[in-house]
Amino acid sequence: MDEFSKTEQDYLKAIYQLEEKTDKMVGITDVANYLKVSAPSATEMIKRLAKKKLVEHKKYYGVLLKPEGYREARFIIKSHRVWETFLVEQAGYQIDEVHEEAENLEHSSSKRLVERLYTLMHFPKTDPHGSEIPAERFWEGEIITHDLNHAEVGHRYEVVSLSQEVKDFLVCLNQDQPKFMTLSSVLSDGSVIVRTDDDVRFVIPHFQKNGWQLKYYSH
Ligand SMILES: [Zn+2]
Fold it and tell me: What would the pLDDT profile of 67-95 be if each residue is shown by its tens digit?
């Protein structure tokens, strides 16, 4: 479990969502209204978050997220949206049934679990409601790899390891082993075109795709 309480996470998420709607500092009363709590209890909680350096609290002006608070808010949003996606795609829920479940699951899930589910579902870009799922990773404790069969067009991958067959193939192409590459397109026979960071493009035949072990890097 992470070091933040459910209440702290709810406040960070609320401030994040209010910040998205304004270019000014978020007022304490806005936070209180959003969370349906009294202004004094919102003030007290925000002072606690400020003490933990998660937010900056300016008297009379309001509150704003500091980097660590921002990151935790993004994680909670990712957790919520990953769970909604999982419930619809893998557990047979209807779209209108998932929000309440996700409201609870978002707080009780470790960063490792959320990132595992995200990888398992091959890095969905949006949840079932169409909201964007943050792509940054919150758990780096282990390298999660998968082969090129599970890569997605437009995503950039770190090349973790290659089979001997693939290494021989690259020698034939006179191509160095790429450190990073982006999947450009999938052809009708299942072979793929990839682009390295040096902007070199080449085709990888379908039967060699399981020889590429990749780690998801970024969009
Ligand atoms: Zn929801």
Answer: 999 999 999 999 999 999 999 999 999 99
pLDDT digits (tens, 9 = 90+) for 178-218: 999 999 999 999 999 999 988 999 999 999 999 999 887 65
CA 86 – ligand 1 centroid, Å: 12
8 Å CB contact between 126 and 187: no
Q: Residue 158 is part of which domain span?
A: 145-218
Phi, psi of 97 (to 5 degrees): -100, -10
CA of 16 to the centre of ligand 1 (A): 15
Number of domain units in the chain:
2
Cα(194) to centroid(ligand 1), Å = 35
For residue 54, give the CATH number of its domain. 1.10.10.10
Q: Is 119 within the bounds of a domain?
A: no
> Rounded to the nearest whole angstrom, what is the distance from the C-alpha of residue 193 to the centroid of ligand 1?
36
149 lies in some domain? yes
User: Long-range contacts of range 67-75, CB-CB < 8 Å, 24 or more positions apart?
Assistant: 69/12, 69/15, 70/16, 71/138, 72/4, 72/8, 72/9, 72/12, 73/9, 73/12, 73/13, 73/15, 73/16, 74/16, 74/134, 74/136, 74/138, 75/111, 75/114, 75/134, 75/138
Q: How far is the CA of 103 from the centre of ligand 1 (A)?
A: 7
Collect residues with CB below 5 Å from ion ligand 1. 99
